[in-house]
Amino acid sequence: MEPKVVPKKRVFVKKEWKVTNTIPTLKEKCLRYVADKVMDGMYVNLPEVLPVVLINHIFQLIHMPKSNLVEKSFFEIVKQFQFNEVVVDYVNLKMGFPELVYSKHITKLTLLELECARVEPAAKTALAMGEKGRAVTLNLDFVLKRFLNPNSCRDLSGLSISGHDVIFRPHWVTNMLQMLPSLTVLDLNGCYFTNQDLLTLCQSNLSLESLSIGRTEVTNLKGLGLQKKLKILALEELRFENPEDVADLFLLSSLEVLDVSANYVYRESVLSTTAELLTQCNSKLPALKFLDCSFNSVHFETIDKLVVQFPNLEQLSVIDTDLAEIADLGERYKPRRFLTTADLPSCIHSLMFYTSSSTRSKIILVEILELLNSKIKGQKKETIRRLATSLAAILRNRRLAYEVHLLTVYCIQIIAKHQPTLNKLFLSDRKNLVDAICIAMKVDDWPKKESKPLRTPSEIVVQGIALFSSTKILKRTNLHQKVFNLMTRTLEWLEDQTSVIKYKCLVFIANHTNFISTPESVPKQLPLRMAIMSYLKEKTNMESAEYRIILNLLKSSLRIDARAYGLHEVQKELLKTLFAKAYLYEQESRLFELTFEVIAMVWPQLSSASKRRMFTPQYLQHVEHFLKSYTEQVCMATTRFLLEIFVCDYFHLREYNRINLIHHQSEIWRIIKEHGLQQRARMQDIFTHIGYFSRNYFLKGWSMWFHEQIVEGINYG
């Protein structure tokens, strides 16, 4: 039975130490569904019927960090929800979010990525942005007073300011202690936090249960032993040179989780780690259950001493160490378990543990990627299912680095492309994966700067589209409409130079044209049409298969709405582009015929004035050139288009003079003669129409004579 190393409640540290079961529970699925409905404006009375604990979960699903939500709907939701846990990021600082949060009773506060913020003038005293690459100076008193009312300050139990490289104002610790007397969870990872700050913090009346001070300036843990209730301590990337520097650590009799990862220092040209320093102290931590020694130089001798020194130790992490590739490490130190990357099951177990740590999960995913490439065959069904659910959990965590999500999509691609492995997944597993990939590809949440993408995650979009279009992962999931909407939304956001992504989106849409006409897709048809139009103009040399896909997609959109390209300027531009393409594909009769079919669909939508301006002598020469072609399909396609012009009674236009008629008369007759009168019935109707409606006596006589020739079948020489 796998030991539980931490309480079930969420803690505000850099990593969630609990070994979570990543298979979505019924409660999690219901909460996601409710969150989606809340964003759609439904469940208005939801806060009245649900407890605050569930409201917090739903609010976290709605308020994803770094998301640019629709301001109006978001404010309405915030006003309704009585949440007490909140994440403040640079997007919130630009909105009226602080005032709304101030009205709530907050017990846990996370300040996320404030170094990216453009702070409003009223808040300039709180954050002073230096030059690019410099740390952020944070007036913590001002920020806390801006977001927390007096009751919230009194009851706040969790505060996280990690990941900022923040420098605090003088005496900040003393001021914080006076303002937040109930604090039990504190995360200062990456902030400017010194030995003196730590001593001041530990000598206070606080009863901390979780403390994260990794990547700070701390080099001595003096005073830490005063926090007798401390259970979780994160000390990653710190440098301790002597055993005396960590001596106070052994006064923490309640400590259950300890992170000393990436802790190494050179003493007299010899590499030493904090784990080795711990073994030099003749003391024990009786309650310690989990020890993270990853990203260090750890050997068997050190592990042998640690398991004796910490008798209740249940799990050790040795990822990215000399022992990480040893498969039977757990057998040697039973009943203790090790987090390693020796094989796929070990990687999955480690990944499930580090689903909220970018550094750890990235290392593990690289190993998983290599194992999938080399040893995907023969993996057990349960192993693949556990891997799939772990990968979905990674994609759902919006706080992980972009590179981590990209590696995850690569892993899913390998699983999906190997059909025997994909078949090992249940339908619910594939649905979970597809839903998670859609979250990772959600273009609405791309960080923006001055209305343009600041960091466009194009590779995730490309790989996601390739995954959906080239594998069977969507089969029977009934999520095609969701993916289709994502593709059309992607087209709307993409810039002109991203033609590769645009084409992949168009290919997927072309293979699922049945979704174009659904009511849900109607608002997305305009960006789709504009994407087709721009792609035709951008790509001067398209492959035949590529051009056929675009033409068929264009036909589908025109069938749904013949006036799809309603603006005359757009229609003219489209016709001009199609005529140019017709020259390029004249030797490929089917593509040429398809081109003129589309031209014939667009032409009737032009106004008379636009037709007059459009059909210049230059375009007449194009038509005559195609009429003189000795390829039957080219001739017939051109003839059909020409007859469409006749149907529109184009002969009233002055530009169409007698010479043009004679040219077309002879060419049309040649077609009739050489191709077995295939168009005789159609032409007979057309010339009857011309003779009846035309006011020009010459045209009437010409059309009547031509009509007689068609009826009698006499060869015209």
TrEMBL record:
GO terms for cellular component: Cul2-RING ubiquitin ligase complex. InterPro entries: LRR_dom_sf, Zyg-11_UBL_adapter. It comes from the Eukaryota. Gene3D superfamilies: Ribonuclease Inhibitor. This is Uncharacterized protein. It comes from Caenorhabditis brenneri (Nematode worm).
